[in-house]
């Protein structure tokens, strides 16, 4: 019998997997991209994933630290990403049981909404600090993140999957 | 009655409480950073932590470039070599004339008793990446305080001014592009010497001359160069070309839109200039006026002082 994705019994997650995924996400964000507005925020995406999957291991503290590193790396106001990632992490933890109930498509819808809230928080901070509106393309980033969600969640669960034979036993 | 759960079910404070804690911490940091700039020390440490990842992130681009170099054909190389040789020849002619002109200018300056201009030193730097923030126009270069970059130094590429170093970390520094909304640069129209100040246009990637009278003598395709009167940018560097002038009968001022001369969003190598010209001391500013202009116009001397205290 083929088990659905949510019913599969997974191996316990290793801390090294989580750390490596965050390092990879930061790396992807720091790549010299051409138009940053159209690109999903990989750190936010991976953060949502771990907050949904492992709310007891990854929480607001990790989100806040990642946000600070992102802020310093990009030379923006300290606290802008920290605030937005904290709120993203909170929503991820809060909705984690609900999100895991759905299939990949509906999960992506939830994740898109969470990323949109994060983007809106960052936008509000920037507008309050005197920045100007960067144009509607910033809405593309959360949508792109939601589209990538099934792929990201499949890839990040790979280290925890058991081989099919072991599963059957 | 004691209703606390056994210790192995303890999960710390509720998520909502934690959210309030971290949100207020972030907001406090935001205010401290935006208003008082006390957080620069923390920022330097965080930037150092992010540095290995940033350095690693530029590696794929370098790899692609190296691969492209490896697979370029001999014919291409020969052709490129010839082009470069022709350009070098043309440049050497210019350089000879420049030397003569410079000597002449120095003599004339001596005649009229003006201060001699000192040589401008340049540090070559490679662009690591653009800031991942659509709201600010920033660039990160791989030279920092260790290599002698100082805050406030102008940054140029081979075609003109790119921007200004606004923050210096140990191994990299942050360059604010001319197109940033908070960046201003004093310019001069090359054709007639008219002075103006160009402000960044934000997301549009253009510059804007503010406060130009509606009847000012300025035309489309006028070239703008640095005037050098701010003491930050050396005079005579190309800045922008005028692309659009809107003169409105209702308005006393003309709206002049310019396109930056340098590739502010392209190019891999830039020059960080350090100008050692001896300048007369700045006149004392009244305290009230100082508070008002803060944030709009970047005062190079003030920002230099601020950053120096942090380091």
Radius of gyration of chain A using CA atoms only: 16 Å
The total number of structural domains of chain A is 1
Q: In terms of quaternary structure, what is this?
A: heterodimer
Number of separate domains of chain B: 3
Q: Low-confidence parts of chain A lasting 5 or more residues at pLDDT below 50? A: none
CATH architecture verdict of the largest domain in chain B: Beta Barrel
For the termini of chain A, the CA-CA separation is: 11 Å
Stretches of chain B where pLDDT falls below 50 for ≥5 residues? 289-311
Mean pLDDT score of chain B = 78
- Overall structural class of chain B, as computed from helix and strand content, comes to alpha+beta
How would you describe this protein?
The complex is a heterodimer of chains A (169) and B (311). Chain A is mostly helical. Chain A is 66% helix and 0% strand. In chain A, helix 1 packs antiparallel against helix 2, helix 3 (60-74) runs antiparallel to helix 4 (80-94) and helix 4 runs antiparallel to helix 6. Chain B is of the alpha+beta class. A 6-stranded antiparallel β-barrel of chain B has the order 1-2-5-4-3-12. At the A-B interface, helix 1, helix 3 and helix 4 of A face helix 1, helix 2 and strand 1 of B.
Could you outline the blueprint of secondary structure elements for this entry?
The complex is a heterodimer of chains A (169) and B (311).
Chain A: H1 15-30, H2 42-53, H3 60-74, H4 80-94, H5 96-101, H6 104-128, H7 140-157, H8 164-168
Helix pairs in contact in A: 1-2, 2-4, 2-7, 3-4, 4-6, 6-7
Chain B: H1 15-36, H2 40-70, H3 74-112, E1 120-130, E2 138-141, E3 154-156, E4 161-168, E5 173-177, E6 184-189, E7 195-200, E8 207-213, E9 223-226, E10 238-246, E11 253-260, E12 269-275, H4 287-293, H5 300-310
Antiparallel strand pairs in B: 1-2, 1-12, 2-5, 3-4, 3-12, 4-5, 6-7, 6-9, 7-8, 8-11, 9-10, 10-11
């Amino acid at each position: 019998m083929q088990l659905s994705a949510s019913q599969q019994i997974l191996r316990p997650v290793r801390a090294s997997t989580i750390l490596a995924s965050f390092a990879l996400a930061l790396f992807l964000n720091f790549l010299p991209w051409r138009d940053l507005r159209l690109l999903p925020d990989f750190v936010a995406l991976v953060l949502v994933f771990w907050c949904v999957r492992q709310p007891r291991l990854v929480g607001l503290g990790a989100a806040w630290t990642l946000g600070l590193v992102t802020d310093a790396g990009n030379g923006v106001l300290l606290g802008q990403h920290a605030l937005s990632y904290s709120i993203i992490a909170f929503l991820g933890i809060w909705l984690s049981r609900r999100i895991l109930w759905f299939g990949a498509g509906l999960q992506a819808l939830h994740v898109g909404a969470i990323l949109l809230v994060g983007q809106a928080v960052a936008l509000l901070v920037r507008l309050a600090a005197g920045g100007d509106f960067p144009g509607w393309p910033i809405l593309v980033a959360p949508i792109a993140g939601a589209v990538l969600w099934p792929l990201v969640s499949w890839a990040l669960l790979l280290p925890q999957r058991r081989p099919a034979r072991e599963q059957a036993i | 009655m004691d209703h606390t759960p056994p210790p192995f079910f303890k999960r710390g404070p509720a998520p909502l409480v934690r959210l309030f804690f971290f949100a207020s911490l972030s907001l406090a940091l935001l205010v401290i950073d935006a208003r008082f700039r006390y957080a620069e020390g923390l920022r330097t440490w965080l930037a150092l932590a992010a540095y290995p990842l940033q350095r690693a992130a530029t590696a794929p681009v370098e790899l692609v470039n190296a691969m492209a170099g490896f697979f370029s054909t001999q014919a291409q190389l020969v052709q490129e070599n010839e082009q470069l040789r022709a350009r070098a020849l043309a440049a050497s002619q210019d350089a000879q004339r420049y030397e003569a002109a410079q000597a002449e200018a120095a003599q004339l300056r001596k005649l009229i008793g003006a201060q001699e201009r000192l040589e401008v030193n340049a540090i070559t730097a490679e662009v690591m990446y653009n800031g991942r923030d659509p709201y600010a126009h920033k660039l990160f270069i791989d030279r920092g305080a260790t290599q002698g970059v100082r805050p406030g130094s102008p940054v140029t590429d081979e075609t003109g001014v790119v921007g200004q170093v606004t923050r210096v970390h140990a191994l990299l520094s942050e360059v604010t592009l001319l197109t940033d909304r908070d960046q201003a640069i004093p310019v001069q129209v090359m054709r007639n010497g008219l002075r103006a100040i160009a402000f960044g246009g934000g997301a549009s990637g253009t510059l804007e001359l503010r406060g130009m009278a509606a009847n000012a003598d300025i035309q489309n395709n006028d070239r703008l160069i640095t005037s050098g009167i701010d003491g930050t940018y050396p005079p005579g560097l190309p800045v922008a070309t005028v692309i659009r002038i809107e003169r409105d009968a209702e308005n006393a001022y003309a709206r002049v839109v310019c396109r930056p001369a340098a590739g502010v969003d392209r190019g891999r190598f830039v020059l960080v200039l350090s100008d050692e010209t001896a300048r007369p001391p700045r006149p004392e500013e009244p305290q009230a006026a100082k508070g008002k202009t803060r944030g709009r116009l970047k005062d190079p001397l003030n920002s230099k002082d601020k950053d120096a205290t942090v380091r």
